[in-house]
Structures are given as structure tokens and as C-alpha cells.
Write a structure and sequence with these properties.
Elements (H helix, E strand, L loop, with lengths): L7 E5 L2 E5 L3 E7 L5 E7 L15 H25 L8 H26 L10 H24 L2 H21 L6 H4 L10 H16 L7 H28 L3 H17 L5 H15 L6
Helix pairs in contact: 1-7, 2-3, 2-7, 3-6, 4-9, 6-7, 6-8, 7-8
Length: 289
């Protein structure tokens, strides 16, 4: 097909963000029904510093860059999807985002460590403590996914998540980028961020078990410091799942695909239209038709 870049994206509020090789495009359905589109040129820091393309390091960079672009996309979509009188200021949105990130780190990193501290009272093996901590972290992660998946507003976002996957699957299959065509494709994708997060949780169980730290607060600090490394390894794992299509990769990617059953919903035609608009703009083709 000529283009070798692996396109990626993210569902936002009433829209989709797509990232192409040279630009990011955000398409949002406004309250009046029109599609608002924002596009911007993007250049990865790895272009300036080639050593950051090394395995694991490139995953850390990708995580930071994706987080930065994703937050910006969410801010843009929030204001486009809301009536003018309800729009948030940049300061309000930034504060909300920062609080959310701190809360997520506290819940999924610190809380499991604190909850397993009492296990040390009856267990003489740090391996048991690490396994219990990992199981609690995994249970909290899946439980969180289940709880938010029943929220009406989140279900709308998950429909756009499904639209994003369908459009990328359509493109990668070489099929026409139309609503009719995209409707027939799967809403699952092996390079999905949901799968990435699952790999982060599972691989953290292995990596955290290597470092034995007795003090619970120091253990939390070590866990937080290791998160970029866990993300880098998880990125390499996800990348391998997306590049190779054999029985082993299909088996290893299956848990993440199952979890996407919670984080995606079947989109309607208007949502697919938004996802296609974002994708075509990210490719540099502008709005279709």
C-alpha cells in the first residue's frame, strides 16, 4: 500500500484522534452536528535523538508522547463537544488532568502495595507478597474497567473507540475507507491501548518481584520509578503482537482482545464518519467527499 507507518488513535469526547506519520488529527462531532477538525504537525523527539529509538527506550518515549498528545486531544474535544457557555478553561482542564493522573497512580500503584503490606506478617517469602500485590492490582484494573463500562457517557466514548478500531482495521485490510466498508470490520485491534495497559499490569508483577524492598513507602517509590521501564517493555510486547501474525502472537494477544470487549462498543454510522474524517486528515487527505 506504499505507506509503512502503523496508524494509531484514541477515542475522545464525541470524537476520535488519529496519529499519522507527520500529523495528528482530531475530529469531533459538535452539538450542531458539524464535524470540527483540528490537525497539527508532529515530530517525535526520536528524530532528533536517534538513540531513543532503541528497544524499551522507544516505548518510554512513545508513552510520554502519546500521553501528551492524548491530553491535548481530550482538552480540544471537551470544548468542541460542549455548548460555548459550558466550555472549560485551559487551566481547569489541565488541573483536572493532573488530578486524574495522580489519582490513577495512587490507586493502581500505591494502594495494592499498601494492601499487601500486612501479608508480610504471616509470609516469609517476598515472592508471595509480590504475587498477592500483582493479583490485587490486576483485579482492581479489571474491576475499574467493568465499573466505568456501564456509565452512559463512557459508553459513548467506547463507541468512538470501536469506530477508531474499525477504521484502522479497514485501512490495514486495504478496503475502501467508507462508512459502509468500515461497518463490517472488527472493533478489536491488537495494538490497542487497552491491551497495552493489561501488559503493563501483568509485566509489572514480574518486574516488581525482582526488587526486594522491606520499607513499604520506599517500595512504593521503587514501583513508581520502575513504571517507565514496565511501559517500555510492554510497548515492545505490544509491537511484536502487532507485527507478527502467528499462533503464538494470536494466543498472547487474546487476553487484551477480550478486555477490549469492555472498552469498545459498536459505533453508529455518524461515529464512523467522524473516525474516517480524523483518519483521512491524519493521512494528509483532508475531509472525505
Amino acid at each position: 500500500m506504499g505507506e509503512q507507518f502503523s496508524y494509531g488513535g484514541q477515542a475522545v469526547i464525541e470524537g476520535v484522534m488519529m496519529r499519522g506519520p507527520k500529523r495528528v488529527a482530531i475530529a469531533v462531532r459538535r452539538p450542531d452536528g458539524e464535524i470540527a477538525i483540528k490537525e497539527q504537525e508532529v515530530t517525535s523527539i526520536t528524530q532528533r535523538y536517534p538513540f531513543l529509538k532503541w528497544p524499551i527506550l522507544r516505548g518510554m518515549v512513545a508513552m510520554v508522547e502519546s500521553l501528551s498528545i492524548g491530553i491535548g486531544a481530550l482538552m480540544y474535544s471537551a470544548n468542541q463537544a460542549m455548548p460555548d457557555e459550558e466550555q472549560l478553561t485551559k487551566k481547569e482542564m489541565t488541573l483536572t488532568t493532573v488530578v486524574g493522573l495522580v489519582f490513577a497512580l495512587g490507586i493502581f500503584v500505591a494502594v495494592p502495595t499498601l494492601l499487601t503490606n500486612w501479608v508480610k506478617g504471616w509470609s516469609h517469602g517476598s515472592a508471595i507478597v509480590n504475587v498477592v500485590e500483582g493479583v490485587i492490582r490486576l483485579a482492581m484494573f479489571i474491576g475499574y474497567m467493568v465499573v466505568i463500562s456501564i456509565m452512559k457517557d463512557i459508553q459513548r466514548v467506547y463507541q468512538y473507540h470501536g469506530a477508531e478500531h474499525k477504521v484502522i482495521n479497514t485501512y490495514e485490510a486495504g478496503a475502501p475507507l467508507t462508512v459502509e466498508s468500515a461497518r463490517t470490520f472488527s472493533r478489536e485491534h491488537k495494538r490497542c491501548g487497552t491491551s497495552f495497559l493489561l501488559y503493563v499490569v501483568v509485566l509489572s508483577i514480574v518486574l516488581f518481584s525482582i526488587f526486594k524492598v522491606d520499607n513499604v513507602w520506599l517500595r512504593i517509590v521503587v514501583r513508581l520509578a520502575l513504571m517507565p521501564v514496565v511501559a517500555g517493555i510492554s510497548y515492545e510486547f505490544l509491537r511484536a503482537m502487532g507485527r507478527y501474525n502467528n499462533q503464538l502472537t494470536l494466543l498472547l494477544s487474546r487476553p487484551g482482545m477480550w478486555l477490549q470487549g469492555l472498552t469498545t462498543r459498536e459505533p453508529d454510522d455518524s461515529q464512523l464518519e467522524v473516525a474516517i474524517a480524523a483518519f483521512e486528515t491524519a493521512r494528509g487527505y483532508g475531509l472525505p467527499g
